[in-house]
């Protein structure tokens, strides 16, 4: 099973940017569903971006501000976050699963590999 590790979180001010990285122990190129989730204490984990065969889909609240992409070598997944708002404060997780057809969705129970998470805090 692939192992994932996030990095790049931190404390930023409203309007600033961060890039999160998710390093994989195995190749996670074509054939994988790759996603970013986030969670605030006391709330359910929510999916915010998914990469399906190279095509991204975003939760409406982050669309046009966040970009999910993978490096050409297929070992690292990224989340570029621009125009960060206090409402984006959360612990961010990357997730992966083998794509067995049927599409890739932001449903956390479908993913089999998770990182440990990285905290993003946006101050006002």
Q: Give the total of beta strands.
A: 11
> Which outline best applies?
globular
Tell me the structural class: mainly beta
Strand content: over 45%
Average of the residue pLDDT scores: 95
Major sheet details? 7 strands, mixed
The proportion of residues forming helix, as a percent range, comes to under 10%
The helix tally amounts to: 0
Q: How many whole angstroms does the radius of gyration measure?
A: 13 Å
Give, in order, the helices and strands: EEEEEEEEEEE
Spatial separation of the terminal alpha carbons: 40 Å
Low-confidence stretches: none
Account of the protein in words:
- A hairpin with a 6-residue loop joins strand 4 and strand 5 (46-52).
- This protein has no helices and eleven strands.
- The protein has 124 residues and is mostly beta strands.
- Strands 2, 4, 5, 6, 9, 10 and 11 form a seven-stranded mixed beta sheet that branches.
- The termini are far apart.
- The protein has strands at 4-7, 10-13, 18-24, 32-39, 46-52, 55-58, 66-70, 76-81, 90-98, 113-114, 118-123.
- The protein is globular.
Briefly, what is this?
The protein has 124 residues and is mainly beta.
Task: Walk me through the topology.
Blueprint: E1 4-7, E2 10-13, E3 18-24, E4 32-39, E5 46-52, E6 55-58, E7 66-70, E8 76-81, E9 90-98, E10 113-114, E11 118-123
